[in-house]
Design brief:
single chain; mainly beta; repeat; apoplast; metal ion binding; lignin degradation
């Protein structure tokens, strides 16, 4: 009886703390917003074929969340779909509250069909464009939308207020439709690299003019001659870097990932999977129609040709009287080709934080933790002939460890001291040093281990990580690394093997770009820094979804500080139960859940 009384007291105390925490948040927030997201299946037709897909509020893309810097947003998710779902607020730091971050098996388990769950999205220093998306398997292919964060009331943009705004969300189309996750699970079980591939790219849910049955629905953006427009761009494509260009128009980049940049005038963008960009476009050409074109930047081996060759398009259309008999102008001279690594490198090298008096940078100088992490293709052994075709299955790794999802989410295990769910031995260095970007590397170097291995950081540690791409198995690619719960400074990027003596001399510690997602170049490296001042469990992963599914991820546990303000909040009164098993069909799991309820 005493034990029961103690548990009841603990539950009561947690509820009280949560209540007063929410009251405090509402008091601090500039404004509070409420959204209802209803997930359900709809039929849509693209490229002359009708598929059933899962969407939010019957739309592809889903609804846009709009708020101001410092606001608080509550999103009630009603899962009317056929399987469990989680949502992630990509670029929102969620201070002290990883419970609402969203990645499955990291901070929560999936919201079962027929169940509602409310996320608390606490906007703090983010300003500009970020986004939200599903974070279980590849559900995000159709479940995603933008988050537009305006300056605080009474504040202004750090550039002349634009005359208007347009939103562009790049997406992927899969012919598998609602069966995409089942097709993915089948290939992952087989251990092959034949995971589903996108068959096209979308702009605001549409292919554009160059795909059959699509030109009637090509997105159009109206502009007035002489006016300037803010284009908010989200790369929600499932695992693809993209080039973007507008015929005969330059773009001025002014923001990335919810932070402002020094303005740079460019004729094209290279935006990696998961990134967002804000650009200004002035309508200063002859009134007419101009294509905005988005094309894949393919970083796989040059012999690999199974990438999307079609170009997604929208039309910038000037208002007024002019002839519509000729087709829109196309950016033939400015849209880079599929494998243009030089164009990508040239774009990346220009990126800088705004670093103004109102939008300062705070790059850690005295580093307390240094990590060197290889991002690599690998393979792992199949125990007991569990793979269909070979003794090994395809894997990707960070420091030679391929992430394995636990049965209970890491956050719950950490908070409740549940043993056996994860280990805290993620290494600061790879197990062996070699010529990471060389040719004809020994396949023995590709042997990897599977595990749920996390890195533990003390509160307020200053961290530097060098991500090193490898050419193991002759499969080097770009790796857009995304960190949950934080933004970080990209202090250096280079090609080849990182040199720890000469390369740090070229670090930018004055105005490096501040982002939450950044590409590690093919056969190259990227160095970042951040301060571990957000306690909780935070996911780190490659935003190429097939790489993430093969294991290129880990998690950081940032321990509590010494005060309530520097400690993780207790969980909400309800979190989705961890009853789903990857070895059971969800219908069976759903029946079990309903029986328990």
């Amino acid at each position: 009886m005493a034990k029961s009384s103690s548990n009841s007291s603990n539950i009561f105390l947690a509820a009280v703390l949560l209540f007063f925490g929410n009251v405090f948040l509402r008091a601090q927030a500039s404004d509070v917003h409420y959204y209802d997201f209803v997930l359900r299946e709809i039929n849509v037709t693209r490229n002359c074929t009708t598929n059933t897909i899962l969407v939010v509020n019957d739309s592809l893309p889903g609804p846009t969340i709009q708020a101001r810097k410092g606001d608080l947003v509550y999103v009630k998710v009603h899962n009317q779909g056929p399987y469990g779902v989680t949502l992630h607020w990509h670029g929102v730091k969620q201070p002290q509250n990883p419970w609402s971050d969203g990645p499955e098996y990291i901070t929560q388990c999936a919201i079962p069909p027929g169940i509602n769950f409310t996320y608390e999205v606490n906007l703090t220093d983010e300003e500009g464009t970020i986004w939200w998306h599903a974070h279980n398997e590849w559900t995000r292919s159709t479940v995603y939308g933008a988050i537009v964060i305006l300056p605080r009331e009474g504040s202004n943009f750090p550039f002349t207020t634009p005359d208007g705004e347009h939103l562009i969300l790049l997406g992927s189309w899969f012919n598998e439709g609602i069966s995409l996750n089942k097709a993915l699970e089948m290939e992952l079980s087989a251990g092959t690299n034949h995971v589903p591939r996108a068959t096209g790219f979308l702009i605001n849910g549409q292919y554009g003019d160059f795909v059959p049955c699509s030109n009637e629905t090509t997105p159009h953006f109206s502009v007035d001659y002489g006016k300037t427009y803010l284009f908010r761009i989200v790369n929600a494509a499932v695992g693809s870097e993209m080039f973007i260009s507008i015929a005969d128009h330059n773009m001025t980049l002014v923001g990335m990932d919810g932070a402002y940049t020094k303005p740079i005038v460019v004729s094209y963008l290279m935006i990696v999977s998961g990134q967002t960009m804000d650009v200004l476009v002035t309508a200063n050409q002859s009134p007419g129609r101009y294509y905005l074109a988005a094309q894949e930047f393919s970083t796989e081996d040059i012999d690999f040709t199974d990438y999307v060759h079609e170009v997604a398009t929208a039309i910038i259309q000037y208002k007024g009287n002019f002839s519509l008999t000729s087709p829109p102008s196309y950016p033939n001279d400015t849209l880079p080709l599929y494998h243009d690594y030089s164009a990508a490198a040239s774009f990346i090298q220009q990126l800088r934080s705004l670093a103004s008096e109102e939008h300062t940078v705070d790059v850690p100088r005295n580093v307390t933790t240094r990590m060197f992490i290889t991002a690599s293709p690998n393979h792992v052994a199949c125990p007991d002939d569990s793979c269909y075709f070979d003794d090994y299955k395809v894997a990707t790794t960070l420091n030679n460890i391929s992430w394995e999802d636990p049965s209970v989410d890491v956050l719950q295990a950490y908070y409740r001291n549940i043993s056996g769910v994860y280990t805290t031995d993620f290494p600061d260095l790879p197990p062996v040093m070699y010529n990471f970007t060389g040719d004809d590397l020994s396949t023995s170097l590709a042997d990897a281990a599977q595990g749920t291995s996390v890195k533990v950081l003390n509160y307020n540690e200053t961290v530097e990580i060098v991500f090193q791409g490898t050419n193991l198995l002759d499969q080097s690619e770009y790796h857009p690394m995304h960190m949950h719960g934080y933004s970080f400074y990209v202090i250096g990027v280079g090609f080849g093997n990182f040199d720890n003596e000469t390369d740090p001399q070229m670090y930018n510690l004055v105005d490096p770009p501040k982002v939450n997602t950044f590409g590690v170049p093919k056969r190259g490296w990227a160095a970042i820094r951040f301060r571990a001042n957000n306690p909780g469990v935070w996911y780190w992963h490659c935003h190429i979804d097939r790489h993430m599914s093969w294991g290129m991820s880990t998690a950081f546990i940032v321990k509590n500080g010494d005060t309530e303000e520097t400690s993780m909040r207790p969980p909400p009164s309800y979190m989705p139960p961890c009853i789903a098993s990857k070895d059971k069909p969800y219908g069976e799991i759903d029946r079990t859940l309903k029986g328990d309820i």
